[in-house]
Design brief:
247 residues; alpha/beta; TIM Barrel; eight-stranded parallel beta sheet; two-stranded antiparallel ribbon; 10 strands; globular
């Protein structure tokens, strides 16, 4: 069996560099952690590609919230794919549903054409869909390379049963990449399917800001750590994943 790849979502330049140094195999570059990730800046990608030699997939998501987009939002997504493709991204991460929670095949196929052959991941919009196995077949037909999923639940911990079933049904037709609260302990169980090829894990830790002054009465987010702490990559967590992935 070939090596199982470890992908980490990253939201800052510092976290990107830490992930590369820690031994992560691929980055999913996003912005706006509180919203679950939206499209990162072109400047971030350009600098990152000049600093590290590691595959970088970029999130294409024009806003937080649901995954049913207007035509103008789809135009934004298509243009972001074109711009970030020109800047050297190695792949794209997106997903589009209709208002009934089904995969919007026409929109997805249009965005994949804009990717000009770069690999595309259907992200956790899959977990918001109304019929997982219908979505699986449509995503395969659209020619996505992988599906990022927590198994239809808030975390992989809860979604392991569905993830195993999806892997058995998908087999080698598409990669099912578990992600969403993934822990090293999940790897062993999912490997038993024989179809675990990649794993998505944030390996994150909140570290206190180096600012010597922080206004205790000011917050820009519902998360109290967002201003006083930075979201970084924990080498120890990466090491735990690498150890179990190599077994």
């Amino acid at each position: 069996m070939s090596k199982i790849l470890l992908e980490a979502p990253v939201y800052s330049l510092e976290a990107c560099m830490q992930a590369a140094d820690a031994g992560v195999d691929r980055l999913e570059l996003c912005s706006n952690f509180p919203e679950g990730g939206v499209t990162p800046s072109a400047g971030m990608l350009k600098i990152l590609k000049s600093e590290i030699d590691l595959p970088v997939f970029v999130m294409i998501r024009p806003r937080g919230g649901d995954f049913a987009y207007s035509q103008k939002e789809l135009m934004v997504m298509k243009r972001d794919i074109e711009i970030l493709g020109e800047l050297g991204t190695d792949g794209f991460v997106f997903g589009v549903l209709d208002f009934q929670g089904k995969v919007n095949v026409d929109a997805c196929e249009s965005l994949i054409r804009s990717a000009s052959g770069r690999p595309c991941t259907f992200h956790r919009a899959f977990d918001a869909s109304s019929d997982y196995f219908d979505s699986l077949e449509k995503i395969i037909a659209c020619k996505f390379q992988r599906i990022l999923s927590s198994g239809g639940k808030n975390t992989v911990e809860e979604g392991v049963p569905l993830l195993k079933e999806l892997m058995e049904v998908a087999k080698d037709r598409i990669t099912i990449m578990p992600g969403g609260g993934t822990k090293p302990k999940h790897v062993t169980e999912l490997k038993r399917t024989g179809f675990l090829r990649e794993i998505h894990a944030s390996c994150k830790i909140w570290r206190p800001s180096k600012n010597q002054f922080i206004n205790p009465d000011l917050s820009f987010s519902d998360d109290p750590k967002s201003f006083s702490h930075h979201l970084e990559i924990d080498q120890n967590i990466v090491n735990e994943f690498l150890e179990v992935l190599d077994q």
